[in-house]
Design goal:
Low-confidence stretches: 251-277
CATH topology of the largest domain: Immunoglobulin-like
Number of helices: 4
Shape: elongated
Number of domains: 2
Structural class: alpha+beta
CATH class of the largest domain: Mainly Beta
Oligomer: single chain
Mean pLDDT: 80
Helix content: 25-40%
Order of helices and strands: HHHEEEEEEEEEEH
Largest sheet: 5 strands, mixed
Amino acid sequence: MARPCAPAPRPKARARGFALSALLLSVLVLAACGPGLPSPASKQADDTANLWRIALGAAALVGGVTMALILTAAFRFRRRDDSLPGQRASHTVLEVVCTAVPVAIVAGLFAFTVNTERKVTRVVPDPGLVVNVVAYQWGWTFTYPDDGVVSSSPEAGEPAVLALPVGTTVRFNLRASDVIHSFWVPQFLEKRDVIPGFPNTIDVTVTRPGTWTGRCAEFCGLNHWEMNFEVRAMPKDDFQAWLADHRSTGDPPAAATTPVTTTAADATTTPLMGPSP
């Protein structure tokens, strides 16, 4: 006796399955359009944001395709009778594709990551501005050695001001005088640990004017929350006026809050060490 044929899938059910798959795929793709990052404010931040968008887009694409295949199999090939599906030991083409595509995606992301890391950590031979950064409990001191200007936290809990010109590569020489701190401006999309005895150097090229809040991103003690500083990015003419104003008034670091004494000349070469916390 011949076995009755399995009923064909209903058009409405199939349409609902494909519509649901398309909806989920669209949600995943749209999620990649908003990475949730602060608006980049430097050339290096743009490179980091591009890497993040590409990685998020690749993840959304892989997740969307995977979900679409799962839903298609669940709706189209769901069980309708006791018959067994076609049995085969292997599918060479499918196995090669399922191996080659993930390897290609990982290799591409790895190459793009390495290239971005090189751009972000690159140090130019002749920066347009040098700023020596000293982190201490519980504040910051910013020294402009070529201009004889020092900006620091005037009182505990008040932020120091870091003024920067737009379109100029700025060299930050990072030092810590007591414990481990971390130099972080969210709009730069990077941060650097500041470790006593281990000087660190980064270059940042600000691309737009603005005022942002910088922070210590490493828990450094009881008053860690006080270690904010204010970043003021401004056009070059305004920055020169800011330097002239602070050069004429003199803005030395407060002796009560800065545990070390440095000059603009030796701040670029001497690691700053202070008393143990």
